[in-house]
Structure formats: structure tokens, C-alpha cells
Design goal:
The complex is a heterodimer of chains A (903) and B (140). Chain A contains 34 helices and seven strands. Chain A has 903 residues and is mainly alpha-helical. In chain A, strands 1, 2, 3, 4, 5, 6 and 7 form a seven-stranded mixed β-sheet that branches. Chain A starts with a helix and ends with a strand. A five-stranded parallel β-sheet of chain B has the order 2-1-3-4-5, with helices on both faces. In chain B, strand 3, helix 3 and strand 4 form a beta-alpha-beta unit. In chain B, helix 2 runs parallel beside helix 3. Helices cover 41% and strands 16% of the residues of chain B. The chains are: A mainly alpha (903), B alpha/beta (140). Chain A: It is a multi-pass membrane protein.
Chain lengths: 903, 140
């Protein structure tokens, strides 16, 4: 008689056997790389981790409830594996070349090594797998309970222990077991050869158990296939009524096909633990064959169970209860071990895979970001990694247990598994896009996954709580806040679909739609583009694309330290020594090539995931050495710097110009200052000259004794004249000051310039006669109106005329005056036959205090006359210049704009 | 008057006591008057060229030289005279209407013996000329 105690003890013993196998397996592969454990057969068997207790027990239940539908769970993987050349081959190639550690790593790596995407995928995977783990707990618990319920005293020490406590015990045991199993060391490629060996062993055990039960039931009890079918038909068992091929079939085939690559544990075994794409060739036919064997007796067992077992029996447990009821304790125990095997293999691999994801993508990045390199030694980091994985395993099993408790004992096994399938199926669109669509972007994929996950959670995960939560039941019936078209199983008014089909339809449709639309409307980062090419064109490009690293100040030592921390001293040393050999030197003088850095990053990625490895290597080498992504960022920054420096250049150019202007202004100021000094000095001189006479003569006059009356008269008159000269000088200086400031100390009015010239000539008539100057007149203009002041214009004419008289030393002085209008200007030329202006003086002649050096001595005047005249003419809008004249002397030309001609 | 020197009959030339180089007529007139009144024989020129020529032909015992002269400035004349061995020791009184320190410095550097600023006190000019005549009495 089989009792619960016996099965529990058997289970524990079985686990011990597994542990020994795993231990030996590890040892063997370490010593012998090409061992039997790395063969295609073992690989294929390990893939059968797909067949969990759901398959072992649940397929029969499913067949009992839904007929042939249970086959869909095998059909999807069969299609994928038979067509391994299309998807699996590429998946394995890519993952091996990129040292991918998990599905989260795959997606993250493909989409620009995005840590956020890795986190998202990891979280979704954990949530998605939780029901599945619960399913295994439930299966183990149910199987033990089934044994316990089989007869009096069978409960043994389980008396008084309910399902929950039993499941908790199972979960704790599993956690412990997985921790022992999967986290003894951190391997470079996250390959667990020992675990694979154990899983392969379990595959054989469960297949053998199921076949044994199947053969016993079919041939021992039922008398062959024919007999069973007839018996079932006679008993009125009709299983094919609901199991017609239809949308539900398609949905389940899609889900199971997705699951065989998207389930973390399948990804772990099929892709990560793969010894190479060659094994796929064998697995391509062998795994479907395994599935066929697993399913061949499902229907007979279901039918036989339904026709012979008492009504209300749980069809999920027929595999166990049929041998029990037949009194076959040994067979029942084998069946139990088979189911237990299915469950444990799933739990072990799933929690290892998930814990790698959680620790690599959530825990490690946090630690890496919060601590600088060099704060921990290699041992510490490895321990940390293992610790985080152990924690993750406990967390994952706790979640599974929690889900098991929350959802209660409501459902059959199969629907729970389907919830997980549909959850991880959300990774299928991004995976396919990542492998085949070069333009898929991180944002598009993230949006797709998020939306798909949300729809899945709403339409599948939530409804699984319907029976235990009244709130959920209300939402199911009426929609959230009474919004009926958001009802979880009737989204957008889609009423006639099976809930599973409904959820798969909406979640995958929206997932793909967001992926495609998002990708079309967003752009890839440079790293994404590179990774996209690496993934999509893996078969086109044999030579791995070289990652561009810019050599900086980081030394090989820095990187060795990092490698040692993650890979361990042995691996790190052999890696660096190999690199040194390639370079033809010793490890001490190892040059840090981008090739080496890239290789190291790949190696690290094998342990801690692409995103973390990337962060880590960048962090160590950063500051000095930069990955392409950062290069691009730097390039952007460089562009900014260039723009900035161009701006600076512009600014500095402006500054330079300003400085130049300032300099010019300064020079001008200094010039003005020295001009002012010069001017004051000139003024001083010009004032002192008459002052000298005045002082000297007044002193002479104050001593009148020696003077006669005539002398006194003469000296007094000199004093008078000099004081007049002084006054005039001061007047002129003030006048010039006013004019130079741009002021016009007169009211402009239209005046007849010709009349003014005639009047000036009349004033100077006395001077001409004194000097016996001969006046010649050239052409004379008709009366012409200009804008100005008659007195001031007259002053200019008188100045020019008197200068001509004053400085003319010719024996027969001649003055020639002509006036005319030309091109809107009234022009007067005043020429003489005097000494003329020396070339050197021509530029200075209009300056203040300038007097021709050749000028005769004693001409009086301060040299302000011409300066004032020019200022006056300028203020009237005209010009006063020295021009080559008709006579040998100077010729001054005055030009004023004509307002109008007086008729 | 005490130092007044009669015509040098022996030299034949009409040697004079003071040569004035000044271009302002009224100033020249005042200088001429006060120096003659002091008892010296005075001749005058009104530009730089004439001053150099006058020094050679008239052999004055003292030259009263204005700085601002047409044709050749007073400083120019001074420089030429000091570079000529014949006139190197001629006592020269510089007159300037600018009167700045820099002019005085220039004059001293070029070897002027005395410096008077316009407007001057008649007594200063006469005193300076007398001093120069006395100081150089022995050397001629």
C-alpha cells in the first residue's frame, strides 16, 4: 500500500539522485569537453523540460475535457522544431555569437543593450511564469494528495496537513533544491551542464513512467486501443464534441509554438545551454518524436479513466489514480516520480533561468551603478551574483506559491499553463522582429511588449482570480466602472470568442501593431542599428562587426581586474594570456585593443548579460575609452562643442572687433588728447604772443622817463592793437569750438551767394589797393541762391581774399576770381600768384593754428582763419578745398549746393 | 651799460653785442628797445635762416633766440650753432611762448645758456643778457 510518507520519501530520494547526477555531470564536462553529456541526444532530452507536470498529468485531463485539443500543445513545438532551420538556427547562432544569457538579454541586446527593456522583459517573464510555477506546485500537491486519498492510512504523517501547507513545503523544498542545483557557481556562458544532465535524466524518467502507465492502462487494463474506444463509446463518453478544430486550436498552436522559444526555461535549455546549432539538426526530429511518445497514450488513458473511474474523479490525476486503483503500487510510485520529475525539472530550469534574468538585469545593474569599479574584489562580486540569484529563486517560488494560494483549487491544470503561455507569447513579436526586421526599434518593441502584457494581464491573468475575488468577478461581468466594452473577456465588444482566443487575439494584435507602428515612427540609436545588423544579418556577415572603441587611458590591468571580478581569476588569466599570445607579447605589456575589449565584453555578457557587461566595461574603460554609443553621444557633444566654439569664435571675433574698435577709439582719444594738448599749447602760444608785447610795452610805458611822446604814442597803440588781436583770437577759438561741435551759430536762410561775394570783394578793396593787387575776373555766375548765412559766407570770402593779399610776395600781385554753377553746385575759385602752399603743408593748411611754413614772418593771425572758414562752409553743406589753380600761387575752391537760381 | 662794448675797430667787421631772432614784430620792437636802452648794440632777424646768417656775419656776443621761428625753428638754429666749433661757445638766450618744462629741457639739452618765457618781465631779459655777457667776457 502506497502512503504519502512513502511518496514524499521517494521524492526526496529522487531529488538526491538528481543532485548526484548533476554533480557528476558537472565534473565530467569540466574534465572532458566533448563528453557524452554534450551530445545531441542529451540536448534533445533536456529540451523536453517543455513537458511539465501539466503535460504529464494535465494532458490526460485536457483530453478528457476537450478531446484532441491537448495535441495542440505538442503541435506548436513540433512545427518550430521541424522547421528549426528557419527560426531556431538563427536564434542559436545569434545568441551564441552574442553570448546571450536569457530572453531578456536577447531582446535587450538586440535593441541597443537597453537595460530598461531587459528589466521590462524580466518583470513580465516573472509575472508570466508565476502561474506556471503554481501549476507545478499544484500538480505535486495534488499527486501527493491523490496518493494520500487512495486508502485508509495512506495519509501517514500528512494527516491534518492541508493543500496549502503541503504546497508551501513543496515550494520550500524546490527552492532549496534549485539553489543547491543551479547556483553553485557562476559560469561564463550560463551553461549548467550538470543541471542539463539531470534534466535529461528526468526526461527519460517521465517518458518511461508515462509509457509504463500508458502501456499498463491500454494493454493491461483496457485490452488495447480498440477495446478502450469501444468501451468509452459504450459508456457514453464523448470527448470530441468540444474539441473541434477552430480558432481555439489555432490560438493554442500559436501559443505553444511561441512558448517553446519564449518560455525562459525553454530559451535557457534550447538556446543558452545549446552546444551549437548542429545539435538542432538532431533535435529537429528527435524532440517531436519525444513529444509523440509522450502523447501517444494520452487519449486511451483519458478514455479509460472516464469510463471506469467513479464520476467526479479528477481526470488530471488519472495517470496516478488508475494504477493506484488497480493496486499497482510500484507503477503508481513510478507515475508519481514521473510527474514529480516533470514538475521539478520545470521548476529548476525555470527558476534558474528567471533568477539569471532577475539578477543580471535588475539586481546587478543596480549594484553596478551604485558602486564604482574596484570597490569589491572578484570573490565578493561572484558571491554577490550567487546571492542575488538565490534570492531571486526564493522570490520566484514564493510568487508561485502565492498565486497557488490565491487562485485556490479552482481550475484544471491546463488553463493555468495556458495563462503563462499567453504571457510569454508577448515576447514572440519582438523576438521575430529582432531577428528578421532590421528597422524594429527599441521604443516600438517596448511599447508593443507593454501593451501586449497589459492586455494579457487584463484579459487572462485577472480573470484567473475571478472565483476568489468578488471585485474581479464584478469587473468580469460589467467591465471596470461599468464600461462594458472593457470587460476582460469581451474587449471592445468581441463577445463570441473563447476567452483564450480572445486574449491571444487582442494581446498579440496590439503588441504587434504597437511594435510596427512604434518602430516606423521612432528611430534607432546607433548602438541599436549596429545590434540590429548583427542580429538580422548574422548569416550574411561571417566576420563579427568590429565594435569601435577609442583607445584611451585605461590599461589592460584595469580590465583584467574587472574580468577577474566576474569571470574568476583562472578564466580572466587565460583570456588575457591568450590575447597576449595573439599580440606576440607577454600579459604585462598587453595592449588594449578594441578587439580585446569587445571580446572581454562578450565574455562578461555571458555571465552578467549584455547590458550589464556593457555598463561595466564602459564604466571601467570610460572616461578614457568609449563605446560606439558613447562615441556617438560624444560626437553629438563634440558637435555641440564645435558649435559652441564656433559661437565662441564668433563672440571672440566680435570681441576682437570690439577690442579693435576700442583700440581705435582709444587711439582716437589719445590722438584727441594729444590734439587737445597741442591745441592748448597752440592757444597758449597764440595768447602769449600778444600778451608778451602788452606786458613788455606796459613795463616800458610805466618807466616814462626815457620815452618821448611819439614813442609813447606808438607803444600805447601797439598795446591796443595787441589786445584787440588777443580778443579776436579768443573769439575765433570760441567760434571754432562751436563749429567743431557741429553747432551752427546762425539761422540758415536762402541767400544770393554771388551778391555776398561782391560785398566781400568791396570790403577787401582797401587791402587790394594797399598791396596794389591786380584783380582779374574769370567767368562769373548769375545770381545763385544757396542755403546759409550771408555774414558767415562773407567772412569766409574775406578770409580767403585777405590771405591771398597777406601772403602774396610777388612783385606784381595778381588775384583771379571766378564763379560758376556746375552739377547743382555753386563754385567760387580764388587764385593768386603768391608763393603757393608747399606740398607738405597742403594737408595741414585747414588745420587749426596751421600757417604755411613758407609764410612770411610777422603776418599776425593765429592760423585759425582757414580752419574756421572750412567749418563754416561744411556747416552750410559745402566744401572748401585747395585746388590746382590757373596762376602759380594757391587756388582755393569753395563749393556750395545750389538751392535755386535767381532768375 | 657798464659792460657795454664799443665798436670793435680792430676786427674791421661791425661786431655787435646782441642779435635778436624774433618773428613777431611788436615783440621784436620791445626787445630791441629794452636791450638798446640797456646800452648794447642790437641787430635783429625774423627767421631761422637769417639768424644763422646773422651770427656768422654780425658775430654777436649774445644771441636772443625765439623758438617759434619761420623757416628754421629756434631749436634747429641752436643745434647748428652748437655743432659749429666757431659758434660752439656763443652765449644763447632762448625765448619761448610755450614755456613748458619740455621746452626748457630741450633747450638745456641742446646747449642753451639761458631760458626766458614769454610774456617776460623786461628786467629778466636784460638781466639774463647781462649775465651772459659778464660770464663770457673773458673768453672772447
Amino acid at each position: 500500500m502506497l502512503s504519502a510518507d512513502v511518496v514524499i520519501a521517494t521524492g526526496v530520494a529522487y531529488v538526491g539522485v538528481l543532485f548526484v547526477i548533476a554533480y557528476l555531470g558537472d565534473r565530467q564536462t569540466r574534465n572532458n569537453a566533448g563528453s557524452f553529456l554534450r551530445s545531441p541526444a542529451i540536448y534533445t532530452l533536456s529540451i523536453s523540460v517543455y513537458c511539465t507536470s501539466w503535460t504529464f498529468y494535465g494532458a490526460v485531463g485536457n483530453a478528457a475535457r476537450n478531446g484532441l485539443e491537448f495535441l495542440t500543445i505538442y503541435l506548436g513545438p513540433t512545427i518550430v522544431f521541424v522547421g528549426w532551420w528557419f527560426l531556431l538556427r538563427k536564434l542559436v547562432y545569434v545568441s551564441r555569437s552574442q553570448a546571450i544569457t536569457s530572453i531578456a538579454d536577447l531582446l535587450s541586446s538586440r535593441f541597443g543593450k537597453s537595460s530598461r527593456l531587459a528589466v521590462l522583459v524580466t518583470l513580465i517573464a516573472v509575472i508570466g511564469i508565476t502561474p506556471y510555477i503554481a501549476l507545478q506546485l499544484k500538480a505535486i500537491t495534488s499527486s501527493i494528495q491523490a496518493v494520500a486519498a487512495s486508502g485508509e492510512g495512506a495519509r501517514g504523517s500528512l494527516a491534518g496537513v492541508d493543500d496549502g501547507a503541503l504546497a508551501l513545503g513543496v515550494a520550500a523544498g524546490m527552492a532549496l533544491f534549485t539553489i543547491f542545483f543551479g547556483t553553485r557557481n557562476v559560469d561564463a556562458n550560463e551553461q549548467h551542464h550538470g543541471v542539463v544532465a539531470a534534466i535529461a535524466f528526468e526526461a527519460v524518467v517521465k517518458l518511461a513512467a508515462l509509457l509504463a502507465v500508458g502501456i499498463f492502462v491500454t494493454f493491461g487494463l483496457g485490452g488495447g486501443f480498440e477495446a478502450i474506444y469501444q468501451k468509452a463509446a459504450a459508456a457514453g463518453v464523448e470527448v470530441h464534441a468540444q474539441g473541434n478544430f477552430g480558432p481555439r486550436w489555432i490560438a493554442m498552436i500559436i501559443l505553444s509554438a511561441a512558448a517553446i522559444v519564449c518560455l525562459p526555461r525553454q530559451f535557457q535549455i534550447t538556446v543558452v545551454e545549446s552546444a551549437g546549432p548542429d545539435h538542432l539538426r538532431t533535435a529537429g526530429w528527435a524532440f517531436p518524436a519525444y513529444l509523440l511518445l509522450m502523447s501517444v497514450f494520452t487519449m486511451p488513458i483519458a478514455l479509460y479513466g472516464m469510463s471506469t473511474m467513479p464520476p467526479g474523479s479528477n481526470p488530471d490525476m488519472f495517470v496516478l489514480t488508475l494504477p493506484l486503483s488497480a493496486g499497482q503500487s510500484a507503477l503508481a510510485l513510478l507515475a508519481f516520480i514521473g510527474g514529480f520529475s516533470s514538475a521539478t525539472s520545470m521548476i529548476i530550469v525555470a527558476s534558474i533561468a528567471l533568477s539569471i534574468m532577475v539578477s543580471n538585469h535588475i539586481i546587478m545593474p543596480i549594484i553596478l551603478r551604485s558602486s564604482g569599479p574596484g570597490t569589491r574584489n572578484g570573490q565578493g562580486l561572484t558571491r554577490l551574483l550567487l546571492m542575488s540569484r538565490r534570492l531571486s529563486i526564493m522570490l520566484i517560488l514564493s510568487l508561485g506559491f502565492l498565486y497557488f494560494r490565491l487562485t485556490g483549487e479552482t481550475d484544471a491544470l491546463a488553463p493555468i499553463g495556458l495563462i503563462s503561455f499567453a504571457g510569454v507569447a508577448q515576447f514572440l513579436p519582438p523576438m521575430l522582429a529582432g531577428l528578421y526586421w532590421r528597422d524594429a526599434t527599441l521604443k516600438g518593441v517596448a511599447a508593443g511588449i507593454l501593451v501586449g502584457f497589459a492586455v494579457w494581464a487584463w484579459t487572462m491573468l485577472l480573470p484567473s482570480f475571478e472565483t476568489v475575488s468578488s471585485t474581479v468577478a464584478r469587473i468580469m461581468a460589467n467591465g471596470p466602472w461599468g464600461i462594458r466594452f472593457l470587460r476582460p473577456e469581451h474587449m471592445f465588444g468581441l463577445n463570441d470568442l473563447d476567452p483564450l482566443v480572445h486574449s491571444v487575439f487582442w494581446s498579440l494584435l496590439l503588441n504587434s501593431a504597437f511594435l510596427v507602428i512604434g518602430s516606423l515612427f521612432t528611430t534607432q540609436s546607433p548602438l541599436e542599428r549596429i545590434q540590429a545588423t548583427l542580429f538580422v544579418d548574422i548569416f550574411r556577415r561571417r566576420e563579427p562587426l568590429r565594435r569601435s572603441f577609442v583607445q584611451g587611458g585605461a590599461t589592460a590591468n584595469d580590465l583584467y581586474f574587472v574580468a577577474e571580478r566576474v569571470l574568476g581569476a583562472n578564466r580572466a588569466t587565460s583570456l588575457f594570456e591568450a590575447a597576449a599570445r595573439e599580440q606576440g607579447g607577454d600579459a604585462a605589456g598587453l595592449e588594449l585593443t578594441s578587439d580585446l575589449i569587445g571580446r572581454l565584453e562578450r565574455e562578461l555578457a555571458g555571465s552578467i548579460g549584455a547590458a550589464s557587461a556593457h555598463v561595466m566595461v564602459s564604466k571601467v574603460v570610460a572616461g578614457a575609452d568609449v563605446s560606439l554609443e558613447e562615441m556617438m553621444q560624444m560626437a553629438g557633444e563634440t558637435q555641440q562643442v564645435i558649435e559652441y566654439s564656433q559661437e565662441l569664435e564668433k563672440t571672440s571675433e566680435a570681441l576682437r572687433l570690439t577690442a579693435l574698435k576700442l583700440e581705435a577709439a582709444n587711439a582716437q582719444l589719445r590722438e584727441l588728447d594729444s590734439q587737445k594738448d597741442e591745441f592748448l599749447s597752440q592757444v597758449s602760444h597764440e595768447v602769449r604772443t600778444p600778451m608778451t608785447s602788452i606786458r613788455s610795452f606796459s613795463e616800458i610805458l610805466s618807466d616814462p622817463g626815457s620815452l618821448d611822446e611819439r614813442q609813447r604814442q606808438h607803444f600805447a597803440s601797439t598795446i591796443h592793437q595787441e589786445s584787440l588781436r588777443l580778443t579776436k583770437l579768443l573769439d575765433e577759438i570760441l567760434d571754432l569750438g562751436t563749429l567743431e561741435r557741429g553747432e551752427r551759430p546762425w539761422q540758415s536762410a536762402p541767400i544770393d551767394a554771388e551778391a555776398v561775394l561782391d560785398r566781400a570783394l568791396a570790403v577787401c578793396d582797401v587791402l587790394f589797393r594797399q598791396k596794389q593787387m591786380k584783380l582779374e575776373f574769370g567767368e562769373r555766375a548769375r545770381p545763385t541762391v544757396v542755403e546759409g548765412d550771408a555774414d558767415r559766407l562773407s567772412q569766409v570770402f574775406i578770409n580767403l581774399l585777405s590771405n591771398a593779399v597777406k601772403y602774396n610776395d610777388a612783385a606784381e600781385p595778381v588775384l583771379r576770381i571766378s564763379s560758376f554753377t556746375r552739377a547743382g553746385s555753386y563754385v567760387v575759385d580764388i587764385a593768386d600768384n603768391g608763393p603757393g602752399i608747399a606740398k607738405a603743408d597742403r594737408a595741414l593748411i585747414f588745420e587749426k593754428f596751421a600757417r604755411g611754413r613758407q609764410g612770411l614772418a610777422g603776418q599776425g593771425g593765429a592760423g585759425l582763419g582757414l580752419a574756421i572758414s572750412r567749418q563754416i562752409v561744411t556747416a552750410m553743406g559745402g566744401t572748401l578745398d585747395l585746388v590746382p589753380g590757373p596762376l602759380r600761387g594757391a587756388c582755393f575752391r569753395l563749393r556750395l549746393p545750389v538751392v535755386r537760381r535767381v532768375s | 651799460m657798464a659792460v657795454g662794448r664799443p665798436l670793435d675797430l680792430e676786427g674791421g667787421a661791425l661786431a655787435i653785442d646782441v642779435l635778436i631772432a624774433e618773428d613777431e614784430p611788436s615783440i621784436l620792437e620791445s626787445l630791441d628797445f629794452i636791450l638798446r636802452r640797456a646800452g648794447w648794440s642790437v641787430q635783429s632777424v625774423s627767421d631761422g635762416e637769417a639768424a644763422l646768417h646773422g651770427v656768422r656775419t654780425l658775430e654777436p656776443r649774445v644771441l636772443v633766440l625765439d623758438v617759434m621761428l619761420p623757416r628754421r625753428s629756434g631749436f634747429d638754429v641752436l643745434k647748428v650753432l652748437r655743432n659749429d666749433p666757431e659758434t660752439r661757445d656763443l652765449p644763447i638766450l632762448i625765448l619761448t611762448a610755450k614755456g613748458q618744462q619740455q621746452d626748457r629741457q630741450t633747450a638745456e639739452d641742446l646747449g642753451a645758456n639761458a631760458f626766458v618765457t614769454k610774456p617776460y618781465a623786461n628786467a629778466d631779459v636784460v638781466g639774463a643778457v647781462r649775465q651772459l655777457l659778464t660770464d663770457h667776457a673773458g673768453t672772447s
